[in-house]
Amino acid sequence: MATPLPRDPIADARLNWERHGWSDVAAPMAAITAIMRTQQILLARIEGVLKPFGVTFARYELLALLSFARSGALPMNKASSLLQVHPTSVTNTVDRLQSAGLVVRSPHPTDGRTTLIELTPEGHTLAKRATAALNAEVFAQSGFVDQDVDQLIGILGSFRRNAGDFS
Amino acid sequence: MATPLPRDPIADARLNWERHGWSDVAAPMAAITAIMRTQQILLARIEGVLKPFGVTFARYELLALLSFARSGALPMNKASSLLQVHPTSVTNTVDRLQSAGLVVRSPHPTDGRTTLIELTPEGHTLAKRATAALNAEVFAQSGFVDQDVDQLIGILGSFRRNAGDFS
DNA sequence: GCAATATACTAGGACATCCAAGGGTTTGGA
DNA sequence: TCCAAACCCTTGGATGTCCTAGTATATTGC
User: Fold this and answer.
1) Cα–Cα dist B74/B45, whole Å
2) B156, part of any domain
3) DSSP secondary-structure letter at A21?
4) Is A10 part of a structural domain of the chain?
5) pLDDT tens digits, one per residue of B122-131
6) pLDDT tens for each residue of A8-54
7) How distant is C1' of D23 from CA of A22, in Å?
8) Which residue, B69, B38, B74, B49, is CA-closest to B131?
9) Which helix (H) or strand (E) holds B104?
10) Which residues contact B164 (CB under 8 A, 6 or more apart)?
11) What's the CA gap between B51 and B48, in Å, rounded?
């Protein structure tokens, strides 16, 4: 890690907003900026834990999703909507996972447009181990106390619903 | 926007975690995943507002930072630490801003290693207009009620301090 | 004073994300 | 029936982020 800054840069930004007469939006600006930064910190931690497994977070997310699918396989577009990423991102991710032998593409039995993604045994094993590592090294040491975790889940859940993620 | 999903995918992931015996970390997992998704939603909104100005969020952040600097100029490494991004990202961003005529590089008067970044008049004007747009279209309509904004600022502020962002 | 160490920036490469566009497959209405 | 519209995936291009290395300049220690 780099040396901590002497002052919170987001609190400073908020002061700058207030000094410029934007007090009415200074607090939401600070909250949103804090979310951006927190995401960056968390992503770096997660990527650090996954690095030994040879997968990135994007690839892990797809492996985890597949490992929970009842049939063990999912159409590309289903993965895209569940992971909330662009279809081209899924194509990119599947290409790399397939090169690594962790998933395979197979044609949909009835819809010629659709491609199914399926975990290989290696992919299944890796997903299991990577999940155990993330649970132990990231989620069990999130840096949030239980009460804050509940607050975040509630606040961000409402936000995501209002943003149109789900109904 | 895509059609909302019938169910919250993060709540489903949490259920999957609990079903697999990882109940102790299911809640933090859900909170962290929600932060990742929320960041993605907010970033998309911000980029949408900035698009007409021809800048991305990364470039806007640097312009805004420079616009608040007393001297009107900042060393590259200062910008890197304040924005909490890798020095090479700043190099990349400055390259593009400079090509667009929004900032200029100049040598540091006493330290030959250091490069100063400075806003051009065009950069200053654009920063002002883009900030007004973000204030009106994103921060003023954040989707968080005031109470939640305060909660987020508090919770994420503690998290960032513990993560070593500042002291 | 000079060599060793530290600091500042840049070049090249790997990844992820999105958008725009294209080609194949299905579906639905005339 | 049949063609247009809708849907699914992939390719190609632009951006941003990080990492590893390399070059240049400062600082430190002997």
Assistant:
1) 28
2) no
3) T
4) no
5) 999 999 999 9
6) 999 999 999 999 999 999 999 999 999 999 999 999 999 999 999 99
7) 44
8) B49
9) strand B103-107
10) A1, A2, A4
11) 5
- Answer with the residue of higher pLDDT: A3 or B40: B40
What range defines the domain where residue B38 resides?
29-139
| Contact yes or no for A117/A93 (Cβ under 8 A) | no
Residue by residue, DSSP assigns B73-102 as EEEHHHHHHHHT--HHHHHHHHHHHHHTTS
Pick A35's closest partner by Cβ from B2, B29, B35.
B35
For the record, the structure tokens of B133 come out as 């747009």
CATH of the domain at A52: 1.10.10.10
Q: Tell me if B3 is assigned to some domain.
A: no
Give the pLDDT of residue B148: 97
Q: Which of B18, B36, B35, B37 is nearest to B26 (CA)?
A: B18
Region label for B118, one of left (φ > 0), alpha (ψ between -120 and 50) or beta (otherwise): beta
Distance CA A41, CA B126 (A): 29
B126: amino acid identity, one letter: L
Cα torsion for A110, A115, A120, A126, to the nearest 10°? -140
Kindly report the number of other CB atoms within 10 A of residue B22's CB atom.
Answer: 18
C-alpha to C-alpha distance for B113 and A61, rounded to whole angstroms: 42
CB-nearest partner of B156 from A4, A38, A165:
A38
Q: Which residues of A touch B148 (CB under 8 A)?
A: 155, 158
Q: Is A110 helix (H, G, I), strand (E, B) or coil?
A: coil
Are the beta carbons of B14 and B30 closer than 8 angstroms? yes
- Side-chain-side CA neighbours of A34 within 13 Å: the count stands at 27
Give a yes or no: residue A124 inside a domain: yes
Query: Is B142 in Cβ contact with A162 (below 8 Å)?
Result: no
